[in-house]
Amino acid sequence: VESFFDLGGNSLSAARLAARASAALDVEVSVRDVFDAPSVRELVVAVSGRRPALPPVRAVSPRPGRVPLSFAQQRMWFINRLEPSSGMYNIPLVLRVVGDLDVDALRAAVVDVVVRHEVLRTTFPDVDGVPFQLVHPAGEVAERLDWVVVDSVGGI
């Protein structure tokens, strides 16, 4: 019996497999399950009889006017107040794209991700020094994304 890993699987593809199997089978399948039961037969036996996966987490409506910050958000807010010009929590990224890039498709994909994940639309204003979460409406996303398309210069 060939295993998932004998066929070229790795930890990243195992994560994808676990997510797809969870959705298709409506049971919780973890990456650990894929490692412990790397063949289809073993994985089916391992997850058979499990309860259905938990339903997705949904936002409670209506929300309070001011949602307090989590402890991690409080830490980030505090550090930003101490050093407003610090880029400590920014993750710069440069990609080299070979061939034609469909900029409109890329923009649509980024907008889709930001619309799906509220945390990417959340800012932390404060009133009288007390911060709170402000989730911006999904409709504002496309308007606020700032895009610059440049050609590679100097063999970056």
List keywords for this structure.
single chain; 156 residues; mainly alpha; two-stranded antiparallel ribbon; extended
**Which ranges are low-confidence, i.e. pLDDT below 50, for 5 or more consecutive residues?**
none
Helix content: 25-40%
Largest sheet: 2 strands, antiparallel
Mean pLDDT: 85
Q: How large is the radius of gyration?
A: 22 Å
What is the strand content?
A: 5-15%
Number of domains: 2
Shape verdict: extended
Q: State the distance separating the first and last CA atoms.
A: 46 Å
Strands of the widest sheet, in order across it, are 1-4
Number of H/I helices: 6
Global structural class: mainly alpha
Secondary-structure element string: HHHHHEEEEH
Number of strands: 4
Topology (SSEs and partners):
Blueprint (H helix, E strand, L loop, with lengths): L10 H15 L5 H6 L3 H8 L23 H12 L20 H14 L5 E2 L2 E2 L2 E2 L2 E2 L5 H4 L12
Antiparallel strand pairs: 1-4, 2-3
In short:
The protein is mainly alpha-helical. It has six helices and four strands.
Structural write-up:
The protein has 156 residues and is mainly α. 38% of the residues lie in helices and 5% in strands. A two-stranded antiparallel ribbon has the order 1-4.
